[in-house]
Structures are given as C-alpha cells and as structure tokens.
TrEMBL record:
This is CoA pyrophosphatase. PROSITE patterns: NUDIX. CDD domains: NUDIX_CoAse_Nudt7 (cd03426). It comes from the Bacteria. The keyword Iron-sulfur does not apply. SUPFAM superfamilies: Nudix (SSF55811). InterPro entries: CoAse, NUDIX_hydrolase-like_dom_sf, NUDIX_hydrolase_dom. Keywords: Hydrolase, Magnesium, Manganese, Metal-binding. GO terms for molecular function: coenzyme A diphosphatase activity; metal ion binding. Its cofactor is Mn(2+); Mg(2+). The lineage of its organism: Bacteria, Bacillati, Bacillota, Negativicutes, Acidaminococcales. Residues 28-161 form the Nudix hydrolase domain. It holds the Pfam family NUDIX.
Length: 222
C-alpha cells in the first residue's frame, strides 16, 4: 500500500459512522414539542399549556408540551410524545402523529423539532403540576381568523476583551447587527400567544391555509 493510500484510510477513519452532528459552540440544546389538536363540539381545537409559576425558565409562559431530548428517546418524535405523556398524562399510543413541522433554532438556546398530533377526543388530562400550571384550548377557526401582530428582533454580536480585532477584517467596534427574525403575536381573549409557541403555531396555520383545509363545526349528537 502506498503512503498516500495509507494516509487516505487514516483520514477516512475519522468518520466511522458518517453522522453529522450539531456544533455546540453556541450551547445549543435539542428539544421537541407537540402541537396538540383535539376534536370537540366546536370542531378542531388546539391545546395550550401555561408553564407553572415555580419553573426556573419562562414561568407563566404559554407553550406546547415538550422538552429536552433524552438518551432513551429513539428520535425527536419520541421526545415530543414522551413529554406530552409526562406533562398531560396521555399515553404515547393514544396520540395520532400527523407529521413534523419545520425545525428551527430558538435563538434563546434550543434547537426545536415540532410535531403536530391529534389527542383522543375523550381524555382526562393528568397535569404535572410541577411543570404545567393550567391548560386551555382555542378553536382552530378562531386562530385562523386572527391577523397576527408581527415584530422583528435583531441579532447582534460584539467583541469581548482580548478579541484580536486587527485580524478580523471589516469587524467594527461595538455591536454588529448580523440579522434578524420575525416574532408572531396571536392575541386571543386575554392571552397573548407568541415567542417559540407563536412561531410553531404560525407555521401550522400557514400549512392549514396552504392545504385548503378549513375547520368544520362538529355535529351535535341528537
């Protein structure tokens, strides 16, 4: 074997599983959430959680069931289903998974993998009071009728002490705007749905609109 071929094999050995991973330089962590629908006498409704007041991160915020991926989770969908079971008390095999929504970086740390699914029509929720303060549902037709308020946030960076500015050509002193992203606000009654939850909701509603699927009123039993 030539020296070149030997060195080629050594380099190829640096990729034993060919798996592409996430660079954790920005301290990203992976999470998955479920956008839960259920059929009621009012038609399709989306279920929302309100985070418990004692939570260390974003207490009182409106969210969907979800959380960190654990090593025992076979994939991100399994994470979303497990978290839904832990937070709402609904077994994984009782949830119909419709499919994934586009995953995105949450800017505050998490890489988020959302899924949409249908909960059983007749189910008694068992809330984990350590994480869930309360739940509420909003008819899909009401959400589709809302014109969200759209704001924009900028992303910026600046040098820390010791940064070699002389080698960073074109990097100006102070804050440098790197980009921005839209934030969707959905007001419903006295609640405001926004942030990560608003982004996932907006993505789902756009999918419903593009698919031409409009919510129909449920038939009352006579």
């Amino acid at each position: 074997m030539s020296q070149e071929m030997e060195q080629r094999q050594k380099l190829a050995g640096l990729w034993p599983d060919q798996r592409q991973r996430v660079d954790k330089t920005l301290r990203l962590w992976e999470s998955a959430v479920l956008l839960p629908l259920r059929w009621t006498k009012h038609g399709w409704e989306i279920l929302f959680e309100v985070r418990a007041a004692n939570m260390s991160w974003q207490p009182g915020d409106i969210c969907f069931p979800g959380g960190h991926r654990e090593d025992s989770d076979s994939n991100f969908c399994a994470t979303a289903l497990r978290e839904t079971r832990e937070e709402l008390g609904i077994p994984e095999d009782k949830i119909q998974v419709l499919g994934p929504l586009d995953y995105f970086y949450g800017y505050s740390g998490p890489m988020i993998y959302p899924f949409a699914g249908i909960l059983p029509s007749q189910v008694s929720l068992q809330l984990d009071k350590q994480e869930v303060g309360e739940v509420f549902s909003v008819p899909l037709k009401d959400l589709l009728a809302i014109h969200p308020v759209v704001g924009k946030l900028s992303l910026a960076s600046r040098q820390e002490p010791g940064f070699p500015s002389q080698w960073a050509y074109g990097f100006q002193d102070g804050w440098n705007i790197r980009g921005g992203y839209e934030v969707f606000f959905y007001p419903w009654k006295k609640r405001i749905i926004w942030g990560i939850t608003g982004r996932i909701l907006h993505q789902f509603l756009e999918r419903v609109r593009q698919g031409g699927i409009l919510p129909e009123a449920a038939h009352r039993d006579h």
